[in-house]
Amino acid sequence: MTAVAAAGAVSRPRSRRPEVPSPLTADRHTLLVTIDRLSPVPDILGVFRSPNEVVAVSAHLHLLCLERLTSATTSWALFAELLADTARRSKIALPFVDTLAGIDQAEVTSLPGIEDALLLRRIRDEAVSGQWQRIVVDLSGAGDPYAILDAPSMLRHTLDRLWPRHRRLAAAADRPAVAQLTTAIDAIDRDCADVADLLSDASITAAHLVLGSGHRGARLLSHHLAAIDLLGLPLRSINLDDALAESGRRELRAEEIDVAPGVDVRCVTALDVPLDRPARLRKLGVTLPAPSGRAHGSSALTVVGDAADGVEATYELAWPQTLPDPERFMLGRSGDDLLVTVEGMRHCLPLPSVLRRCVVDDADWDGERVRIRFSPDPAVWPRR
């Protein structure tokens, strides 16, 4: 998988529109990011590993090796200092603040999603810096890639459960010492929302799935597609890597895979030479398609209401969703979030505003789309 990501980075992207480099990006075309601390990419590209610093590989390619733990503890040290200062200046006990301030840098990874969310925030900062025409992120070798990509959503939900925003605002209004802290937490919340929006924006982001073409890849394909649909990642290509086929026999064929419009499926033929230099990576012929602008999965959700008015109205929320095992599909509700569980993976899906004052009536899956029906909650529905 790493080889495919690196090969895609050393090649130029396929795009329907010609690239017009700006003066800022003329010599910095592509940034390749790896989050695996043991990634072989620096050796393959012939550069020294310099954690958390951008290293030039060529005139058009740069490498950034991110170390998740280092990034998290550095960011947490600054936030913990603010927490401790707030606790010192407050004349009354603030249990939530005291608890967070007592978390050591070495323990920061125990907070759900924070390590990966901070790592993705660094990648977001590179993406919006204006220095790069494209960024290729290799998520292999660092655990569950879907858990990493869902980290901003998880952290937002955790913060809201520990200290809901309306309570944060009320505390800031009543206690000036807390205002600086609530501002910092709101900044984290906004960063998480910004990263989540960036990951699901099909106009600027393209997700590329790499699978072995053998039996294991064939067995896992539908499970990967289910996770991608759930997170609303803008899937752009599926790469079937012969080098990852366990038995050497191809069981997945590009022409037999049924995917949504705008998703390219292609095979990556294994080479009989070590992939130990950029020239050999290019021989793989990997080209990563540019973003298509087509929303995917839960990012393509729709809300349709009937002709009735007021509390008599009904609404249907729906999105395309792969479900390998419909029995493992579950729904829940937490405030303004819909908790959707697919294949043991839970995702917080923010409800559109019109549905936040509604209750869930029922839900079903028609083989292609999840459909959830809502009706207004008379206790909170606006009265005319």
Automatic annotation (TrEMBL):
Limits of the ArsA HSP20-like domain: 316-374
Residue stretches making up the ArsA/GET3 Anion-transporting ATPase-like domain: 96-210
Region feature (Disordered): 1-23
Origin superkingdom: Bacteria
Gene3D superfamilies in UniProt: 2.60.40.790, P-loop containing nucleotide triphosphate hydrolases
InterPro entries: ArsA/GET3_ATPase-like, ArsA_HSP20-like, HSP20-like_chaperone, P-loop_NTPase
Family: Belongs to the arsA ATPase family.
Record protein name field: Putative anion-transporting ATPase
